[in-house]
Amino acid sequence: MKENAVGRSESVPRGVPGKTFGQATFRIVVADISMSLDNVLAIAGAAREHPFVLAFGLLLSIALMGLAANLIARLLQKHRWIAYVGLAIILYVACEMIYRGALELIGASGFHL
Questions:
Q1: How far apart are CA 87 and CA 81, in angstroms?
Q2: How far apart (Å, rounded) are the C-alpha atoms in residues 10 and 72?
Q3: Sequence-distant (≥ 6) Cβ neighbours of residue 22 within 8 angstroms
Q4: pLDDT at 99
């Protein structure tokens, strides 16, 4: 039992281990890498074969995440629909990449429908 400032005893929950600094850091690093990879894939899919658009998109993404991360987080908390619009855009780009990739593979293999 632990006494609080008033002198009353408090029970400390047992069996629930606390997270260490290393575990928290690892989770943050993994989340950051996965979100960065997601941004790169989305920008690469949207840019297609235009290297200037790809470079501009990556620079804009880095700038937005570095400079406006707090603003974006507050907007996403206040207006959840923004996250769904972003998800819809990412899904559209992913499906288009899969479709175009399949067409390229079919064309390269010589298979005709």
A1: 10
A2: 40
A3: none
A4: 93
Strand stretches in the chain, DSSP E: 2-3, 9-10
At position 81, the amino acid (one-letter code) is W
How many CA atoms lie within 13 Å of 41's alpha carbon, on the beta-carbon side? 16
What are 68-107's pLDDT values in tens digits? 778 888 888 899 898 899 889 888 988 988 998 899 888 8
36 within 8 A of 62, measured Cβ to Cβ: no
pTM of the entire structure? Answer: 0.50
Q: What angle do CA 51, 53, 58 make, to 5 degrees?
A: 95
87: its two tokens = 């998800």
